[in-house]
Amino acid sequence: QVQLVESGGGLVQAGESLKLSCSASGSIVSIYAMGWYRQAPGKQRELVAAISGSAGTNYAPSVEGRFTISRDNAKNLMYLQMNSLKPEDTAVYYCNAEIYISVYDEVRYEFWGQGTQVTVSS
Questions:
Q1: How far, in Å, are 23, 76, 122 from residue 63 at the CA level?
Q2: 67 contacts 80 by C-beta, under 8 angstroms
Q3: Coil, strand or helix: which one is 76?
């Protein structure tokens, strides 16, 4: 089984920074793509940032230039550095990963973390 665990959320004031971490563990052969999603109350879950195995990245327009996604492939870790936070960034942030769990096939499975709350006060 595979587990994704987020950490680093909290309550900050507008303009401040937070760094989220996602740790993947379990029966992992390799991790393909990873990403951060968020869901605010009453809204759909949305992609915040994604990073491929070769470290290619893409960001939601609302966070471009303020957030930076990165990963440590050797440690199965992913990060989201969030700067210049705004009240509209308030949401539960989820880690997502596409993972190979078998050496006998090339099937990727999608996993989600439980989420970490980020609250930005004005």
A1: 22, 24, 17
A2: yes
A3: coil
Specify the DSSP class assigned to residue 27. S
DSSP strand pairing (116-121 vs 10-13): parallel
Cα 119–chain centre separation: 16
Per-residue burial over 41-54, b if 16 or more Cβ lie within 10 Å, else e, is eeeeeeebbbbeee
What is the chain's pLDDT, residue by residue, as a tens digit (122 residues)?
A: 899 999 999 999 999 999 999 999 999 999 999 999 999 999 999 999 999 988 899 999 999 999 999 999 999 999 999 999 999 999 999 999 999 998 888 899 999 999 999 999 99
Amino acid at position 113, single letter: G
Helices (H), 46-92: none
Task: Report d(CA 54, CA 118) in Å as an integer.
Answer: 28
Q: How far apart are CA 6 and CA 44, in angstroms?
A: 20
- For residue 57, how far is the Cα from the chain centroid? 12
